[in-house]
Amino acid sequence: MIVTSFDYPPCDGGISRLCAEIAAGSARRGADVRVLTQAVARPGSAVPAVSETRLAPGRPRREWEAFRALRRSAPDLVLCGIWYPEGLLATLAGLRPRVILAHGSELMPTRARWRRDIWRRLLRRVLGSADLVVANSEYTRRLAVAAAPGCRAVAVPLAVDHLRFCPGDRAAAKARYGVTDRLVLASVSRLHAYKGHEVVFRALAALPEPLRGRFTYLIAGRGPDEALLRTKARECGVGDLVRWLGYVAEEDLPGLYRAADLFTLCTRETPESQEVEGFGLVFLEAQACATPVVGTRTGGIPDAIADGDGGWLIEPDDVLGLSRILLALGECPESFRRAGEAARSRVEREGTWDHYLGRFEEALRAEGLGLG
């Protein structure tokens, strides 16, 4: 099997992580796995038992080299990390069987109106001619079918490294962030307005004093709307409760999740701007660390959160609903610790990468495909 993805370790991000887990898990199951990706300047550890071909970065050279490499190969199966450019290159190279991973926003109309029609046609061709499209959620599967009616698409919800993201010393984690004896909320995401940080600001503002003053909201991430969000926090009167952490390295994320009493991300869906949560891997990461979560009923988030089993689902912009959950946290933190334990148990039952690989293989077998 060839896994072709320009997003691959040591690159960060969900696509990189997913492709690496599929490659490593397939190799553990006895498949001959080769990865076609781009060279990256920074150091990183290799994925065990997986051979790599690293192409020169920079467009369009990397695409041309990838196309040539694919044309020269004859794999039992080619797995494309995303439909463009990797899926398109594999399609043009004529490789079969061909499986394409789908993540969410990349299946929506492009923001550039002048190229929407050609993009729509390319997307329909690439997805429609694939032997299988593996989506990260039922929501993303529906997006794929809408983009390419008749395509073979299946939802295989994502998973988490439950050995790395695991419960730990919560008191020590809080001490590291200087939030001992505080009720701690946390979000991890790019700082875009559609991620819904303002909903948390407004929910905090709706709490009665002195409860409101007991909270600290840790926001991890960078992004184009940071200045806007800082202004919104001040306007809501909760600027002094918010800690802006900036970029948090992958290795530090488990400690951040452990420092939180509740993880929350109140994403909105705005298809015209390609803004949606295709799944929301951060929700699983937090739950694996025994931290309960709140998310919105939008995009693929309902596939990441079991409402009432370690987490809560609210409607987008439901400030009152979130404030009620925060009020409950203030009144009985112990019940949230029990919810976190339930969340961890659910991850162990159904959300590990071994579970994902089993579902992934089952989806392939249903189409008469194998890992090679």
Question: In terms of topology, how is this protein built?
Answer:
Blueprint: E1 2-4, H1 14-28, E2 34-38, E3 51-55, H2 61-72, E4 78-80, H3 83-92, E5 98-102, H4 116-129, E6 132-135, H5 138-147, E7 153-155, H6 170-176, E8 183-188, H7 197-205, E9 215-220, H8 226-235, E10 242-246, H9 253-259, E11 262-265, H10 281-288, E12 293-296, E13 311-314, H11 319-331, H12 333-350, H13 353-366
Helix pairs in contact: 2-3, 3-4, 6-9, 7-11, 11-12
Q: What does it look like?
A:
This protein has 372 residues and is of the alpha/beta class. It has two domains: 2-159 and 352-366, 3-Layer(aba) Sandwich (Rossmann fold); 170-350, Glycogen Phosphorylase B (Rossmann fold, 3-Layer(aba) Sandwich). The chain has 13 helices and 13 strands. It has helices at 14-28, 61-72, 83-92, 116-129, 138-147, 170-176, 197-205, 226-235, 253-259, 281-288, 319-331, 333-350, 353-366; strands at 2-4, 34-38, 51-55, 78-80, 98-102, 132-135, 153-155, 183-188, 215-220, 242-246, 262-265, 293-296, 311-314. The strands form two sheets. It has a seven-stranded parallel beta sheet, sandwiched between helices. α2 (61-72) packs across α3 and α7 (197-205) crosses α11 (319-331). The longest helix is centred in the last third of the chain and has 18 residues, at 333-350. It is globular, with a radius of gyration of 21 Å. The termini are close together. The model has no long low-confidence stretch (mean pLDDT 94).
